[in-house]
Each structure stands twice: as C-alpha cells, then as structure tokens.
Amino acid sequence: MDPVESPLFIELRRLTFGYGERVILDGIDLSIPRGKVTALMGASGGGKTTVLRLIGGQVRAQSGEVLFDGHDIGRMDANALYAARRRMGMLFQFGALFTDLSVFDNVAFPLREHTSLSESLVRDIVLMKLDAVGLRGARDLMPSEVSGGMARRIALARAIALDPDLVMYDEPFAGLDPISLGTAARLIRQLNDAMGLTSIVVSHDLEETFHIADQVIVLANGKIAAQGTPSEVRESQDPLVRQFVNAEAQGPVKFHYPGPGIDEDFGGGLLPPGSSGGPA
After folding, report:
1. What whole-number distance in Å separates Cα of residue 70 and Cα of residue 159?
2. pLDDT mean for each 10 residues of the chain (280 residues)
3. What is the value of pTM for the model shown?
C-alpha cells in the first residue's frame, strides 16, 4: 500500500536564521501546501528571498528544520541536495538569462546539464516549454534581442524544463509593463495548475499576486505577521499588515533606519530639510 502523500510540501519548523548578529527569521513555523500558489510578501529586508535560499539549500539555518517533501534540507549531503534541487525550478529576479547563449540554449541548459537525453529529445522539450510561454518563435534570438517581459517568460521556460515539482519565483513582476505583468501572472497560475506544481512567489505587487495566490504569508520583523487566503490577509487588523496592504507611509515600518538622534549627529545646528528634529 502506497504511503499517504502529505498535503504540505514544504515546512519550516522553529527556524532561525541571520547574518552575523542580525536575525532575519526568528523561530518561525511556515507551511507551503502541495499543488498551490503561495505568496511570500512583506517589507524589503523581511526575509522573503532568504526563505527561498533556505529551501534551495544555498544557506543553512542556525536552528530548526527546512523540510522538503518530508526531508530536512539542512541534513542532506551534496548528492541528496542536488537530487532535491533537480525537483526545483527557480525564476530569478529579472530572469538571469545567460547573455552569450541563445533563447533555445538557455532553456536547453538544465536538460543538457542534468540529463543524458539525445539532442533530438532536448529540441522537442525546449520547443514545448517555449510554446507553453508563447515564445517558440523566439528560439533563435539572443537575450539582448528580447524585451524584459519576454526574458522573464524565457526564464520561466528554463525553470520548468526539467518538469520540477516546485517552482520558486523571486520578484517575477519587477520592472514589467502592465501587459507583461498580467501575462506573467497568468502564466504562473496556468502552469501551476496544468503541471501540478507547487509555486512560491516572492513579490511586492499586491494586486496581481493576490489575484493568483491561494495562500499569502506576510513576513515582518523576523516573524509571520499574517497567513491566510488573500481575502483574509486583506481583512487583517494587524497594524503592520494593514500598513503593507494599504501602502501607508506611516505605521510600524518606519521611514528612518535606526541611528543616533538628530541633535547628536548635527550638534544642535541646522537640521537637514524635512527632518523632525526627533530621534532617528
């Protein structure tokens, strides 16, 4: 009898991580459901991309566990980690295409790197993946010859080349015009459902992300400030979540980075324009 598949694909359990003395994630518990689109949101520096790096094994937690399909990433040796990574696809911010490779060769790269498929099979797979993102006709172009939105879609075709179980998106909408942004969002949702993926989307674009996400997790101050459906997060009464959702300038997230008081830095002289004269 086959074991029952867990509805949770990724779990962070009591996880703490930081850079030096700066704590980024402080004992958090976070769950990513299988087959769904989960959005990681929050103010800059809140640990969203760090979560992706922990799942991919690029960094290791100081304490706690990162479970990928039930197995702790932090305890994997190199071979097990590489095997886990073959089940992951990553769309980097701005695409991160190889500039000296054609569109075709960019998408073919993971297939040539991780499989022993014949070139005829590689060709068929690459063209199918490019067709899925609407760019089969751009196969022979170079990255310098495509727009930012096209580059993001090419990177998405590369991310799904190995038919991964998990795809992670780091700011997939950054710098896109409204048409390209809407196209990218629709592709994320369609590919997730058509391929049976689990998707994690790190984004600051509230409207498009809320439109495609099944679950939203808001990170702040090393903790989870809110977690639930998009409508549940919108209705949160937490001051920090309300500030983020409503794009309010005033709230728990301060404009000034903590530092010495104005009087201490300027010695009671003329204050810089726009300063309140209070502590920074």
Report:
1. 23
2. 71 90 88 93 82 91 91 91 90 81 94 90 93 89 88 89 91 82 87 91 87 92 88 84 74 64 67 55
3. 0.82
